[in-house]
């Protein structure tokens, strides 16, 4: 036996025939399953109470074509809308011409000068008014009265006297340090400003230097010019004067009376004559209303036939469901009826024949543990 290995326990050997107590799995028939379900749920298969046999009545659809008008009605509605829009339009009316433009020499209306606007002192109420504050009495400090004792208290001579030490608040030093920083920054700014303002000449070039020749140029002379706005002003003024002259000429021409010629006296008199055009004959016209009426009739007929088929199919389905329900109810009631089991019939027992199979013999399994123990015993 190897060192460190655990001893093995021999297991029970398997015989040649292995069975589960000779029991076979039993399967239930459809009838037994229905009896089991009907017996556990009797309420579901009880007679139907309050069953109302009604058919669903289809509702005729509301088509969008029913609300449409004829072609003539749509044309009349469109014409009425156009007439209404035309009546709502405000007629154009030109403004009257200012006679001052025609009568003035330059054609510019006279504008009367207006007086200058003199500002008045605003009556502003100050937010803080010292005179509106009531006189407050001066604050008077009142010290607390000393505690009067019947017997004076003797001061201890051995206790040390309290010596006050001077101290400084942090807020006092904070303000002083801020002022010191401001003073230093102001001195630095003044020093930089003085340094920038002080002129420092560049050092003189030592040695021979070549100076560039300065080119003498003539002085700049001012040339006369004229602004484009002045030209536009005179051009606009000339155009305006031309319009004024044209309007004056038209007004002068309108003052003279000119009678209109009589057309009846000049033109030839009207003589009626027979027309050579052929008479208009109306052709066969098929109105759109007639076409729609025929289409509507065919559609209504198809819809009626379809509804009739659906109604018959619904009635057949309802009859089939009712028959199926009656059949199920009859089966359930039949299953609930009590029936005694029939008495067993006395019959001869089935003959028992001898099997041709050999008898099963059990044998001891060969386990490695037993072989090792036998070897151990056999060894001296």
Automatic annotation (TrEMBL):
Pfam families: TPX2. GO terms for cellular component: microtubule; spindle. Residues 341-351 have a biased composition (Low complexity). One of its GO terms (biological process) is regulation of mitotic spindle organization. It is found in: Cytoplasm, Cytoskeleton. Residues 1-27, 158-182, 292-380 are annotated as: Disordered. Residues 286-360 form the TPX2 C-terminal domain. Residues 167-182, 292-340 have a biased composition (Basic and acidic residues). Keywords: Cytoplasm, Cytoskeleton. The keyword Cytoplasm applies. InterPro entries: TPX2_C (IPR027329), TPX2_fam (IPR009675). Residues 1-15, 367-380 have a biased composition (Basic residues). PANTHER family: TARGETING PROTEIN FOR XKLP2. Belongs to the TPX2 family. This is Targeting protein for Xklp2. It comes from Kipferlia bialata. The lineage of its organism: Eukaryota, Metamonada, Carpediemonas-like organisms, Kipferlia.
